[in-house]
Amino acid sequence: MTFSEYETVLELRRYRLRPGRRDELIELFERELVEPQEAAGAHLFGLFRAGEDFVWLRGFRSMPDRKAALESFYSGPVWQEFRDAANATMLDSDDVHLLRPVRRGLAAPPPGSGVYVTVSPPAAPPPAAFAAFGTEPSENDFPRLPVHTDTPVSVWFSREPLTESSQRLEPTSRSLLR
User: Fold this and answer.
1) Which of 150, 152, 118 shows the shortest CA–CA distance to 136?
2) Domain boundary assignment for the chain
3) CATH architecture label of 3-171
4) What whole-number distance in Å separates Cα of residue 34 and Cα of residue 28?
5) Are 155 and 133 in contact (CB under 8 A)?
6) For 98-133, what is each residue's pLDDT tens digit?
């Protein structure tokens, strides 16, 4: 299995955190929550600081694989042990887009520094986007974790800002996407 097989279904998760708690969540997340999610069948592409917030990308091979991985992880002992500590750092964890690929590229971004994410109304990806996604039209089969269903979006990853709304992402030490 290749890294890019996990680009079939992607979650862009943006967490608004309590002031001063971002690095606490990242340390907990990287120490305790990455490996168990990957053992359950998810692939964590990127973990990022975004101002005082935490942004991360989780990929799956398919919607049924997503459901199985989420059921396994969120009903397992690791999440049960650390969920209160993780949730205590958050103001909002429901800014989540469930996406499908338009242009794969997270596994092999072009050389350079800087990672930007742009969320926009549906549109063709600009040439500078090394990976592009659109809203996954399937129903969220794990409703315990809400995802945006109000309006479809395009999501682009690039080495430079593509619009005024592009958000710079600062990779954490465990981020594969750099």
Assistant:
1) 152
2) 3-171
3) 2-Layer Sandwich (3.30)
4) 9
5) yes
6) 999 999 999 889 999 999 999 999 999 999 999 999
Which pLDDT score, from 0 to 100, does residue 11 have? 98
Q: In sequence order, what DSSP letters do the residues of 140-152 get, joined into one string? A: -S-TTS----SS-
d(CA 42, CA 135): 19
Positions of E strands within the chain = 9-17, 43-50, 53-60, 90-103, 115-120, 129-135, 154-158, 167-171
Distance CA 69, CA 92 (A): 22
Which residues does residue 59 pair with via DSSP β-bridges, in sequence order?
Answer: 10, 43
- Please state, in angstroms and as integers, the Cα–Cα distance from residue 1 to each residue in 22, 41, 60, 102, following that order: 33, 12, 12, 20
* Sign of the alpha-carbon dihedral angle for 105, 107, 113, 118: positive
What pLDDT score does 5 carry?
87
Those residues with Cβ within 8 angstroms of residue 139's Cβ, 6 or more apart along the chain or in another chain: none
User: Pairing state of beta strands 53-60 and 90-103?
Assistant: unpaired
Bridge partners of 16, per DSSP, are 92
